[in-house]
Amino acid sequence: MSVDVALFYLFAAMATASAVAMVVNVRNTVAAAMSLVICMVSLAGIYVVLEAHLIAVVQIMVYAGAIVVLFIFVVMLLNLRQDSFPPGRMRGLKFLGSLAGLWFLARFLATQAEYLPQTVALEEGFGGYRHLGMALFTDYLLAFEATSLLLLAAIVGAVILAKRRLDT
Amino acid sequence: MNPPPVEIALDFRAVAPIAISGIGAMAVLLLEVFLARRKTFLFKPIGPSYVSGVLGLAATFTLVAAITTAAQAFLSGGTAVFNPEHPMVQLDRFAAFGIGVVGVGALLAVWLSIHYLVELRINYGEYYALLLLSTSGMMLMVSAVDLISVFLGLEILSIPIYVLAGFDRRKLDSNESAMKYFLTGSFASGLLLYGMALLYGTTGHTDLAGIRAAFDAGNPLTVGGLGLVIVGFAFKVSSVPFHQWTPDVYEGAPTSVTAYMSVTVKAAAFVTLLRFAAAGFATVPENLTQVLWVLAVATIAVGNITAVVQDNVKRMLAYSSIGHAGFILIGFVAASPEGYSAVLFYLFAYLFMNVGAFGVIVALADRGRDWDRIEDYSGLARTRPGLAAVMTLFMISLAGIPGTVGFVAKFQIFAAAVKAGHVWLTVIAVLGSVISIYYYLRVPVHMYMREPGEVSPRTGMDTTEGLVLLTCVFGVLFFGFFPDGIDRLPLSALSWARDSVALLR
């Protein structure tokens, strides 16, 4: 087993474990958010193993950085504590649901594994800044520009809903 | 070290309607800042209704320009692709038809809003900017031929509408409406995105043509992806069982916003789904037809039966819009060119009758309160005979009674379904239609056969509101009697719909 593969399994195990930890910790919101950070960082590690360094950096900055910080802000602003969540209802049903999901996954892996995505050869420089820049400003130029409209809509919408006094 | 310069040939005609709406939105935002700094503009003192009028006029110019470019593209019959090497947006007849319906819907909503916003004291310029941004997102979505542009269009259309639904910040209903729509809508967006990721992961393509070529109907991941995409769209068109948000959102949002979203979001989502169904997944009709059959029957049944017990007219119209979504889905089940052109014609017809019905509610709104309870309409024929008459016309058109555009639309759909061999589906749909007559006619019964209440309705009507009602009455009657136009007035809506789907085959 080469170093690459070993690292992949390490990061993959971390990502899965932290994702499970996030769901288990759902009533302790800060712990859940921190598990999400670990999950995002592990995914960034997988991108590094794939030599997509730029995407790995963006993953850490945007997801582990900005988005989770936003989550923590919301948690703090709402002042959520463990006792602000009612004790779990329908526990048996939830347990059965998880079992059904696991069974479905196992069946899928056992019978339909041939349909799982196959490995493909990546072109030289995949995921680098040059590759990304070329894709962004040629093939996906329109999507890039349309995103600015989306941001404008979100900004205007946030201001109109959250501004304290609208009549000036 | 620098790579050689890349030359890409871009055809900006393909994005003209989208760009015009987006730029118009920014212009409206700037115009409001400019107006806010002055006491007079064009020698007239600036009051609330004047600002609303000027901004509404700017939005009108924008939308008329966008509709004109789309109409030119439709008449020329050609296909403009923004970047032929990597097609993401394609302005063809099909897209142009969708842009036309969405644009006219937005235009009527702008006219409905000019006075209504002043009445509710929420006349901020951002309203028109958000409405135009949302319209440009719809135009992007209906002309999209790539999963990425479909998703971007869907988000650009949704986010402004979440805000518009909560635009009346002082009202609890409006806040509830925005919150519900936002939470359920983002969840649906997530499902749609997951479906798109599965499609991309299993086929290796994001463009519809590539997905169609690489589609493997035996692969559970691909089929699951397609299923999740259908769920995402079913949410946007409020098809059962993804309809629960509809009544609360339609009731709480300002009525002009409800009029806008009920016709345009439905039109944009159905047109895009049509491109998916007809162009993207024409190779897997078997399973898809069964899924859509169940969706259509459930939607017709739940929508029409629940509408019967509603005492709020906006809520009743929300359930009726669920029912209409079910009728439109029948065209997808038929999966024939007739069915698809019937879907487009239905969306076109629905535009006039539904905006008209909400337009009457807007025209009655008085001192910041909507006249939306069924008792408010008691004796309206005596106090406001004109409004009562047009409301009756829109109700019988929504019910699908001959002589109105609603009948022609339903007839087209049912004929296509029978021709495709779905007789039972048609029988169920006709039963649903019969139920709908009961709740639609409750409104005219209250208006004509009850005594007026103690509070008399608002007198007088704003010019733009009158213009909307006039347009809708014309649309309902003209296309009801002459769905293919007449010699002197060649508005041949049926042929337009037929020409639009011709290239999907």
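qc> Chain B touches chain A through 48 residues (CB under 8 Å).
qc> done
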